[in-house]
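User: Some background: our group keeps a shared notebook of sequences we're curious about, and every so often someone picks one and asks for a predicted structure to add to the entry. Today it's my turn. The entry only has the sequence so far, pasted here. Could you supply the structure so I can complete it?
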Amino acid sequence: MRLEPRSPAGQTGDRLGETLDRLRAEGRYRELSVLETPEFSSNDYLGLARSPELAEAVVRAVRTSDRVASTGPRLLSGNAPEWEALEAEFAEFAGMEAALYFGSGYAANVGLLGALLRPEDTVYSDALNHASLIDGIRLSRANTVVFPHLDFDFLEDALTVDAGTGERFIVVESVFSMDGDRSPMDDLIVLAERFGAGLIIDEAHAVGVFGRRGQGLIPDALRSSEPLVAAVYTCGKALASPGAFVAGSGRLKRFLVNKARTFVYSTALPPYVASHVSAALRFSANADGARLRLHERARRLRSGLSNRNVDIGRSDTQIVPLMFGSSQRAVAAAESLTAAGFTVRPIRPPTVPEGTDRIRLTVTADTRPAAIDGLIRAVAGAERP
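Assistant: Of course. Here's the predicted structure to add to the notebook entry:
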C-alpha cells in the first residue's frame, strides 16, 4: 500500500503545533489579551497617551491634512513638508545636527545598524541589548563581541585586542528596557574615546524621562568632541506617539536615506502623524512636573520593594523588575498579583536570558501612590522573588 505524501501545509502545521506544545510545557507560551488595569505594565511614562490636549492635536491634524495616507515610501511619493519640519524640530530638541524618522524603534535600529556596520567592522554589544539592536547587528554580519551587562572591565579588555582593518562601535541602551538600570555615560565615553570606537546609543526608555526638557541621558554627558555616531529615540514610550528617530550628523542622515532598507523600502506614515509626534514632543518638553512625579513614584516603588527584601536587580529608573529565575515562578507570581487586582505579565526567555525570568513593573507620572503601596503589599504576599 502506497502512502500519500503529506502536503507541505500539513507538515508545517505539525511543526508549528509541536513548537506551541513545547512552549506550553516550558511555561513560555504567550497569547494576546487586553489589560483591564495596565497601571504597572505601561510605557506611557508621562501619561500623555490619555492627554485630552494631545488627542485634540491629533484630531486637528487629521482634519486639516490634505490626505490620510502617504501613498508610498518617502523616496517616492510619501514625503511631505510635515516630515521635513518634524525632523528639524526633533534634531533641535535632541541637540543633534539632523534626525531621520522611521516607522518604529525596531525599524530604526535594524535600519541603522544593518546599513552602517560592515562585515570587517567589530561591534561591542551589551549582553542585555534590545532584540532590535541584536537583529540589526546580525544583519550587518559585523564581527561581534558581546560583553557581560555593563561590565566595562570586560569591555576594556576586549577593546585592547586588535580588531583588524574595520572600524569599532560600542552599542548600548541608555536605560535598559528589561532591567531598568542605566549605562554610566561618562565611563562609556572615556572608553570610546580612548580606543577610537564610535558610540551608538538607544535612548528609547530615557527620552521624555531624563534630562533637560526630557532630552534623555546623552546631552548631560556629551561634550562637542565626543565619539557619538548615532542615537535612537523611540516615540512610543514617553512621547505617546508612533515611530522613532535616528539622530546624528547631517551626513549620517543622508547616508541612511540612501542605505537604510527599513527606510527606503517602507511606505511612509501619513503626514498627519508628523503633527501627532510634534505635539507630543512639545508637551514632553514642558512636562517637568510630570517627570518629577514619575521619578518620585519610581523611588517609592523601588524603596518599598527593597525594604521587603524583594530582588529588583540594579533598577534605578521607572522600570522595576521582580527577579525570579524560572518561568514557572514568574507565571505563578503574575497570576497571584493579577488576582489581587494588579494586571502584570511575566517576562520569559528569549526576551530575557535563561534563568532571569521576571515580572517587569513600570510606573508612570499618573501611577497613584496608594496603588504603589498596594502592589508592594501584594508582592510581599505573593511568591517571592
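Suggested note for the entry: The first helix runs from residue 8 to 25. The chain has 15 helices and ten strands.
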